Amino acid sequence: MATQFDADNADNLGEIEMQFAVKAVQQAETYWSLLEKIPGSKLKLTKFDDDIFTCLLEAFPEFKEPANVAQISEEDMKSAAGKTKWREFCEQFKDIEDYNFGTLLRLKASEEYTQEGTIFAVRIQFYAIEIARNRYGLNDWACKK
């Protein structure tokens, strides 16, 4: 007889966490490699880019201002209010494969991935922020350096 999985009481298995971390780093390296070769303003990250961008601006009108997406506040994203707002945003995209898979997000569009300047986020947050950055041309510098 199958038992119900209880995520709240499940053990954290180091091996599984390490596999997730490796996949997140690989995704970040792949994305950065693309930015070094193609201006971000010419990149399309998903077939849902238009919908993600529109919903981002509806949920977070502050991101209509490029400066507010150029530098992200981890505190704002991970505060109780921020988590609630982002959770509501993310749930709109549960049909996108791996929308809630862990990934790395740069805090500043003007910097590469660094240990101090990178946070852990879910994939749809990464898509939303990076699609906005690309549309505003904030990542184009990586290709020109």
TrEMBL record:
Gene3D superfamilies: yst0336 like domain. It is found in: Cytoplasm. Signal peptide: none annotated. One of its GO terms (biological process) is 'de novo' cotranslational protein folding. Residues 16-142 form the Polysaccharide biosynthesis domain. Keywords: Cytoplasm. GO terms for cellular component: cytoplasm. GO terms for molecular function: misfolded protein binding; nascent polypeptide-associated complex binding; protein folding chaperone; ribosome binding; translation elongation factor binding. Belongs to the PBDC1 family. This is Protein PBDC1 homolog. It comes from Spathaspora passalidarum (strain NRRL Y-27907 / 11-Y1).
